[in-house]
Amino acid sequence: MRKTVLVVEDEFLIAMDLKLLLERHGWWVLGPAASVEEALALMDEELPAVAILDVTLRDGTVSLVAEALRAEDIPFVVASAYDKPEHVGGEILAGAPNVGKPTDQRLLLAALEQAIYRMNGTSLPLDP
Amino acid sequence: MNLEDLYRLMRNGHVQAQGIIDTVPEPLLVLDQNLCVQTASRSFFSTFKVDRDETIGQHLYELGDRQWDIPELRLLLEDVIPKSKAVVDYEVEHDFPGLGRRTMLVSAHRLFHPDNISRSLLLSIVDATKRREHEAEKDVLLGELRHRMRNLLALVQAMARQTTAAGRSGEEYRDAFLGRFNALVQAHDVAFSHNGAADLQQVVERTVAPYSGSPAGVIVEPGPTVPLASGQIMSLSLILHELATNAIKYGALSVATGQVRLRWEIEEASAPRLRLVWQESGGPPVAAPASSGFGTQLIEFAAKRELGGRVELNYAPAGLMVEIVAPLASVS
């Protein structure tokens, strides 16, 4: 089965890095989206299994995207340089795992798998 | 010593004590055991805009429309102080009439008079409102700085992770990584030495400076002034760096006779657009690469996503020609 992840990140180098990194590990990447508008448009076309969110985007904070994901029961992890992303992006981000920025590759991959597992109670097949 | 002398001494002592109290820059009160004001420093009167006559002899809580009748202060005076010898920087937040909301740091010290059993209380009140505000501002600034540093580190991490390692020696990897790293440093320097804005000419000159030394090298044709925002400086610097390293490895700059000409113009379409052209000549025969590496992806990603424009890489046999067109609305 295809495992899809929505990448929301406005810094193009970091967005590229996340995309290439995730693709290398068997993920199908939607995005990267650099704005709330772009992220919501991508979700209109296809819903991901999980999302990774930067907090401040070109057109505001990511909270609207997080709310749209929550409404669809799609889990998300935050990749933010802020210690407390919820102070910037709102309460909707509280409790979501923050894999930090710079982002450790193993931590990121594990957090995505765990987010899906916690939401569904099942795990996606891991990479060989 | 007669009574007269003693009186003089006591009076001098009092004058001396008052003198000392007046030199203290913070508001200072001396209270008797019933919390009535025995004396106060000059700065107490000026800070709280009260008169000497309406202060001395009054009960602390009665002062200035009962502005000192504060629950936190009552707790300090009636509960904390009797059990301790001194209290330092006890924080009291209160709305003072005429002063507004203030954070006061109250310090207290009990004084025993050896000759009689009277106890007086030395109370200093420091208005820490400004200091607290500065501290809060500093915390915000430090937090922002930390955030920016982490973002910068994340950029470096992205470069380190995506610079090709497979099939390369450690040395080759290092040089490729450091080349990109240096482009990032240059872009950062240009962007932040001018409050986040700079001109295209500067960006171009700094980025190609390492490659302009060879006999032909990179020739930058004079072009119109194009102000750039920090995000655009970053992407153009990285694009030019990728083009230059590519030219050195495979293109015109890999041979002594090769040359790169760089020129740009502003197109007055419905919205003004920047057209930047990188033209190589005199190099070995050119062929399109079999697969696009990270460098090519970076160029395309930066031009499309960051500059909101498009890029064309034309592998003409006479030399690579790269054309970047980006709307100036998103550039300036």
Automatic annotation (TrEMBL), chain A:
The protein's matches in InterPro entries, at most eight in alphabetical order, are given as: Bact_response_regulator, CheY-like_superfamily, Sig_transdc_resp-reg_receiver
Organism encoding this protein = Rhizobium giardinii
Give the sites modified to 4-aspartylphosphate: D54
SUPFAM superfamilies found in the cross-reference section? CheY-like
Name of the protein this chain belongs to: DNA-binding response OmpR family regulator
User: Key word Transmembrane helix present in the record?
Assistant: no
Leader peptide range in chain numbering: none
Q: Which Pfam families has this protein been placed in?
A: Response_reg (PF00072)
Q: Example GO biological process term?
A: phosphorelay signal transduction system
TrEMBL record, chain B:
- What is the uppermost EC class here? transferase
Extract the PANTHER family matched here.
HISTIDINE KINASE (PTHR41523:SF7), TWO-COMPONENT SYSTEM SENSOR PROTEIN (PTHR41523)
Q: Name one Pfam family in it.
A: PAS_4
Q: What is its EC number?
A: 2.7.13.3
Name any one GO molecular function: protein histidine kinase activity
Which InterPro entries does the record cross-reference, listed alphabetically?
HATPase_C_sf, PAS, PAS-like_dom_sf, PAS_4, Sig_transdc_His_kinase_HWE
UniProtKB keywords: ATP-binding, Kinase, Nucleotide-binding, Phosphoprotein, Transferase
Native species: Rhizobium giardinii
> What high-level taxonomic lineage is stated for the organism?
Bacteria, Pseudomonadati, Pseudomonadota, Alphaproteobacteria, Hyphomicrobiales
Describe the location of the Signal transduction histidine kinase HWE region domain by residue ranges: 144-225
Q: Which reaction does this chain catalyze? A: ATP + protein L-histidine = ADP + protein N-phospho-L-histidine
This protein is called what? Blue-light-activated histidine kinase
Question: Could you name the domain of life of the organism this protein comes from?
Answer: Bacteria
Q: Which residues lie in coiled coils?
A: none
